[in-house]
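Can't paste images in this forum, so I'm doing it all in text. The chain is below; anyone willing to post the predicted structure tokens underneath?
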Amino acid sequence: MDTLQKEIISELRKQFVKMGFLSDKSDGRICIGLSGGIDSTTIGLVADHLGLEVNAISYKRKDFESSDYNQAQKTCEILGWKFHTVVLKEENPKDVFLSMIKDYNCKRKTEIECLYPYLPIFETAIDLGFEKLMVGFNTSPDNRKTATKCRQNPGAYWDDIIKRTETYREVPTITKTNGNPLLSYACRKLYEVGKQKGIRVVAPMWGKKYNTLFQKRNLTPNDMNKGYNKSYLKLCFPEQIEKIGMTKTKQMMLQKGGGIESFFEPIIYDKEINFKDYKTDNVTSCLTKLSLLWGK
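Text version of the structure:
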């Protein structure tokens, strides 16, 4: 294992120490919102490595096939983690959409699509006796725009990331640096609503010190994905990753793979919701516009 992999594990361990998971007062358990992707899986693997009991929560829509959920379930079965399933209720997407806007002040598509399934996840975590929920949100250059920026000038990319990230203790009180949000809007919404519901959402991979590991090396997308997607994380625990069949899998997004976008799709054809008659040939674009419109 090279130095980077050791440093990633070391930094996540420090996060666990700060959160009290490794103290004498800890009950030895940790709760993770497991998407089936490598980020949240890595958090679980580090926790398992440190002797913590991993409790994972994942969601699925009733009668909807989700490869991301299936991977999360498979991972827990093979590694011996406790797996808890949230089955989303059969609800009217229009009612849910309006509730996300009115009751939780969501203003963007990502906020709505992330918060909706996480509300019952919060309830499940609390019922299991947890006060904190770990999530794998991070700042990796996954989309085309950020990947291009990182490839063209990795130094500038990571410098900007460091400026926009803080430790988990500072996140709730600081919202912007140089006009840019420290966290994604979706992640901040989960922090905000989670706190209201009585559970603290923790995203250790958003930390300043964690991302400094990549800043020091000026990592490019090629460096991070050489051979296979997010290889720099998968090399932390190669045997386990191979065992659960994730070595060559691409990054999973339970938000999309779990069918949340398709759940909300019917509202774009609702004349009351789409009263401005936005084009419906691009579901993602239309939902984005409707979220911004109703979130005003």
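Residues 3-94+109-253 form a domain with the Rossmann fold fold (CATH 3.40.50.620). The chain has one domain: 3-94+109-253.
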